[in-house]
Design a protein that fits this description.
444 residues; six-stranded antiparallel sheet; ten-stranded antiparallel sheet; single chain
C-alpha cells in the first residue's frame, strides 16, 4: 500500500485529482413517458423562477431534446440553437450567466433528455429569487408538457412561478409571470455542481433497439474475427423501464468460454464479469452499461449472459424492469457483424438466475450493442508487463500528463490501457478507477 499512496500523492502533486468525476445533478427531472409533447409556443423567452435553501453552484444550462425520446420530424437533434440565461430577479439589467445549446447534435445529450452548455460556475444563495430561461425562435423545437405528479425537483430548489416574455430576442428577462410552476419547466434545466453528462456513445457494433419482447436476461454468443482479438469495453442495452432517471436497475454480466448453447440451466463454467446499477434511458432507447475488460481471443466463441433481477409477471415497482429483445423466426434473421466481431442470436432467460425458464422458441436478438477495441489490452496495465500492480503508477501519471512522453518511454504499450473507466478517453476521470484497479490487482 506504501507504493499506492506514493502514486496517489504524485497524482495530487501534479494537480490532477481535483478533476475527479462527480455525480451529475440536474435541477429537475421527470418521467418522460406519461407526458404530452407540444409545440404551441409563440416566439419569445420562457422561464421558471426558483430559490435555493442552501448555497449551490450552477455550472450549466440545458435545453430539452424531445427528439431523443419521441418521434420528431426535425431530427436528429435540435432544430434550432437555443440561448439560455440565468438571472437574479433583484437585478435584471444583465443575466448572471448565458449559454447557447447548439442545433442538431452538436451539444451532447445527457441521460435526463437535456443538452447542456457549460457556464462559469455561478453561486446561488438563499434569500434570492432566480430565473432560468430559454429563448424559442418561431417554428422551433417542441417541448414536453410536464405533469407535476411526474416532476422530481432537487430538494435544494423551490419553484415559485412560470415566467414569459412574448416576442423579442435572446437573453431578455421574462418579466411576465403566472402562478403555475410547471408550465415551461420541461423546456430547459440547470445543472448543479461539477458533474458531467453520463457518456453514451454509440456502440462499436450495434444490433437493434426494436424491442417487442423481453425477459430478465438474454444469453447469446460473441465471436471475434480480428486476428489480434478484441477487448469488450462496455455495452448498450434496451431496458424496459418507464420511470427514467428515478430508480436504478442492477445489471449483471456473465461470460463463459465457448457457446452458451447447452449451458443455459447451470452456472457451471460461467464467470461474473461485473455488476452495476444503471439508470435507464427508456424503453427502446440506448442505455449505457460500462462493464468492460472482457478479452475475446481471435476466432473463439464466448458465451454472454446479461440479466436483471426482474420477476416474471411483475412490473415495476414490484419488480425491477427486464431487458427488451426482438423475436425472429429460427434462422430467418442474419447475425449482426462487422469486420471484427459477430453477435449471434440467443435465448431469453427468466429468474432465478441460470435455473429459470429458457425461452428458445424463436431466435432472440440482443438489443443494443457492444463497445470494443481491437487487441487484448489489459485495462490499468500501463507498463504492459501483463500485471496490474504498483509498477503501473508512474507510467499512468505520465500517460495522463504527457501522452507523447508515455509513448516514447513505452513504445510497445497501448495508452488505451489507461482508460480505466472505459469511456473511450484517457483523462483525469480515470484516476479513481485506476486506484481501485491497482489496489485490487486488476479490473473486471
Amino acid at each position: 500500500m506504501r507504493w499506492i499512496n506514493r502514486g496517489i500523492a504524485l497524482l495530487t502533486s501534479i494537480g490532477l485529482c481535483s478533476s475527479a468525476a462527480a455525480d451529475f445533478e440536474s435541477g429537475w427531472r421527470f418521467d418522460r413517458f406519461p407526458i404530452f409533447i407540444w409545440s404551441g409556443y409563440a416566439s419569445g423567452t420562457f422561464g421558471v423562477e426558483f430559490s435555493v435553501s442552501e448555497p449551490v453552484e450552477a455550472t450549466a444550462l440545458g435545453f430539452y431534446d424531445e427528439e431523443a425520446f419521441f418521434l420528431n420530424a426535425y431530427g436528429p437533434g435540435l432544430f434550432d440553437a437555443h440561448e439560455l440565461a440565468l438571472w437574479d430577479v433583484a437585478d435584471t439589467s444583465a443575466p448572471l450567466a448565458t449559454a447557447t445549446v447548439q442545433d442538431s447534435t452538436l451539444t451532447p445529450l445527457c441521460r435526463d433528455g437535456y443538452r447542456y452548455a457549460s457556464i462559469n460556475a455561478t453561486q446561488l444563495f438563499p434569500g434570492h429569487r432566480y430565473v432560468v430561461a430559454a429563448f424559442m425562435p418561431p417554428d422551433s423545437d417542441r417541448s414536453p408538457d410536464v405533469d407535476p405528479a411526474y416532476l422530481f425537483v432537487d430538494s435544494r430548489l423551490t419553484l415559485h412561478a412560470s415566467r414569459f416574455q412574448i416576442g423579442g430576442g435572446p437573453n431578455q428577462f421574462p418579466a411576465g409571470t403566472f402562478s403555475s410552476t410547471d408550465a415551461y419547466i420541461g423546456m430547459f434545466n440547470i445543472r448543479l455542481g461539477p458533474g458531467q453528462c453520463e457518456p453514451n456513445p454509440p456502440p462499436t457494433l450495434a444490433t437493434t433497439l426494436e424491442g417487442g419482447n423481453g425477459q430478465a436476461g438474454i444469453m447469446f454468443d460473441l465471436e471475434a474475427t480480428h486476428p489480434d482479438g478484441l477487448t469488450v469495453e462496455g455495452w448498450t442495452l434496451n431496458i424496459n423501464h418507464e420511470v427514467t432517471d428515478a430508480t436504478s436497475v442492477m445489471i449483471y454480466v456473465y461470460w463463459r468460454s465457448g457457446s452458451f448453447v447447452g449451458h443455459t440451466n447451470s452456472s457451471d463454467g460461467w464467470n461474473l464479469l461485473g455488476m452495476m446499477q444503471v439508470l435507464s434511458w427508456g424503453m427502446n432507447r440506448p442505455t449505457p452499461l460500462p462493464i468492460g475488460g472482457l478479452v475475446l481471443p481471435p476466432n473463439e466463441t464466448i458465451g454472454i449472459f446479461i440479466t436483471t433481477d426482474f420477476v416474471t409477471s411483475q412490473g415495476p415497482p414490484n419488480s425491477p424492469p427486464y431487458q427488451n429483445y426482438t423475436d425472429r423466426p429460427r434462422g430467418s434473421h442474419p447475425v449482426y457483424s462487422d469486420a471484427n466481431l459477430v453477435i449471434h442470436r440467443g435465448f431469453g432467460k427468466a429468474n432465478p438466475r441460470f435455473t429459470g425458464a429458457t425461452f428458445a422458441e424463436a431466435d432472440k436478438v440482443f438489443n443494443g450493442g457492444v463497445h470494443y477495441r481491437v487487441g487484448t489490452v489489459l485495462r490499468a496495465d500501463i507498463n504492459c508487463d501483463g500485471a496490474v500492480n504498483n509498477f503501473d503508477i508512474d507510467p499512468f501519471v505520465l500517460a495522463l500528463s504527457d501522452p507523447a512522453a508515455y509513448a516514447a518511454a513505452h513504445p510497445d504499450c497501448d495508452i488505451r490501457a489507461a482508460d480505466t473507466n472505459s469511456d473511450g478517453v484517457v483523462n483525469n476521470f480515470d484516476i479513481d478507477d485506476f486506484v481501485i484497479c491497482v489496489s485490487s490487482g486488476g479490473c473486471p
